[in-house]
């Protein structure tokens, strides 16, 4: 079951903004990215330095917004002025508005807290079974490059029926692992969290 949005899933602090630390907008050229570039220069975020090596309040601002003053930015050759609302606020707004965008719906699922479904409790053994010597929990802790290799090898192990059933899913997962590896994310461990926590805002 999918619950509330989990902020800790939405930032990769080992990455810089340049490399896609705000995972919701990584690899895109949307309005919030343009706002972030201007805001970063204004409040002193080093755009090419990992967030983990900078002030902790910057992560909170990227997640929950900057309410002190609006930023003027250029998006699609149009000059605009607006507040940076934060990736949590943006995604929550799109979710509550009832978005039908497949990409945004996938993001909502990825960045939400996942609760154990009572009907699925009987499948616990299935969830932790070994895959090429690794449990699913182990795979989340592996470097992205190794996780990708496990997934690619899994595809080779499938018979024709399994390939028809799971081939598209494996292709989807491998595509996203390749992207996360490209932008420099180390592992999937940050997505293995269960309790949403909203960091205290530092003015």
From TrEMBL:
Top-rank lineage group of the source organism: Bacteria
Q: Which UniProt keywords apply?
A: Metal-binding, Zinc
Q: Name one GO molecular function term.
A: metal ion binding
The family database entries (InterPro entries) matched by this protein are listed as: UvrA_DNA-bd (IPR041552)
Q: Where is each UvrA DNA-binding domain found?
A: 6-77
* Name of the molecule in the record: Excinuclease ABC subunit A
User: Which taxonomic lineage is given here?
Assistant: Bacteria, Bacillati, Bacillota, Bacilli, Bacillales
């Amino acid at each position: 079951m999918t619950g509330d949005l989990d902020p800790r899933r939405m930032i990769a602090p080992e990455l810089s903004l340049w490399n896609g630390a705000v995972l919701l907008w990584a690899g895109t050229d949307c309005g919030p990215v343009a706002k972030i570039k201007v805001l970063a220069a204004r409040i002193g975020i080093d755009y090419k330095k990992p967030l983990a090596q900078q002030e902790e309040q910057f992560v909170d601002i990227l997640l929950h917004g900057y309410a002190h003053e609006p930023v003027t930015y250029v998006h699609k050759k149009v000059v605009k002025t607006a507040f940076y609302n934060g990736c949590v606020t943006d995604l929550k707004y799109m979710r509550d508005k009832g978005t039908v965008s497949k990409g945004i719906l996938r993001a909502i699922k990825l960045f939400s807290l996942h609760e154990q479904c009572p009907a699925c409790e009987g499948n616990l053994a299935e969830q932790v079974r070994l895959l090429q010597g690794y449990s699913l929990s182990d795979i989340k802790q592996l470097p992205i490059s190794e996780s990708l290799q496990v997934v690619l090898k899994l595809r080779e192990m499938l018979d024709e029926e399994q390939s028809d059933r799971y081939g598209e899913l494996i292709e989807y997962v491998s595509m996203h692992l390749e992207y996360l590896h490209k932008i420099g994310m180390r592992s999937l461990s940050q997505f293995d969290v269960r309790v949403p926590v909203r960091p205290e805002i530092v003015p």
